[in-house]
Please model this.
Amino acid sequence: MKRWLFVILMVLLALGATAAWAQSGGKADQNFFPKFEMPGLTVNGKPMNERAQVGTMLQVSFALTTLTLAPYILVMCTAFIRVTITMSFLRQALGTQQVPPTQVLMGLGLFITMYVMAPVGQKMNKFAIQPYLAGTIEQGQFITEFTTPLRNFMLAQTRDKDLQLFVNLGKLKDIRNRNDVPFYVLCPSYVLSEIKTSFQIGFLLYIPFLVIDMIVSSVLMAMGMFMLSPMTISLPFKLLMFVMIDGWHLIITGLVKSFNIPP
Model:
């Protein structure tokens, strides 16, 4: 029923339009048939004076994505890996189960990471953030200048062997030097190199404490005290030695100096 009403209405409109056209002598009435004109569009290819900018929605999406990935970037692309693994090895070598607590070690590792990465952050601010806020560079150049200091820092800590491993796994043939390595190859190579370096430092930390454990164990066996745990007796001597040589000062100094900060 509705379909038939629609057809009848369209027929009546067509008849009315035909009658109006006939009364005007066959000439189109300007009021009845309004004239539509397209606006004048000109494409001249002249350069614009304003900077090209990303839309607000894209900027918000990029910011939210960055905040989501921030913990992984902090762990995987900074000095945090080497510092935290070294601190964990030190606690195990001392034999103190939960001293210092994990929260203290993570906090100390975070602040040492901030101290080591401070020159990198200053370069980012000087060559990327401040020029972009001043309007002297475009967004594309801003991204390049912002990531270059971090990339140089990661390259300075990464071994050529680890880079070559992931380049061969990815079958990348267009890479001629270290600067041509893409970030998705650099990141796992950097993480692998940092883990290797941390384990080497951990091995060196274990040696003096292992010697104390061996000496205490030998003395107890010579005295026939087999039921007494050597770890219980050696722990005070480990703590005494670590305090006497100012161990925290030596560990932090060695950690900070172990990083190769590019100029």
The chain has nine helices and no strands. Confidence is low (pLDDT under 50) at residues 26-30, 32-36.
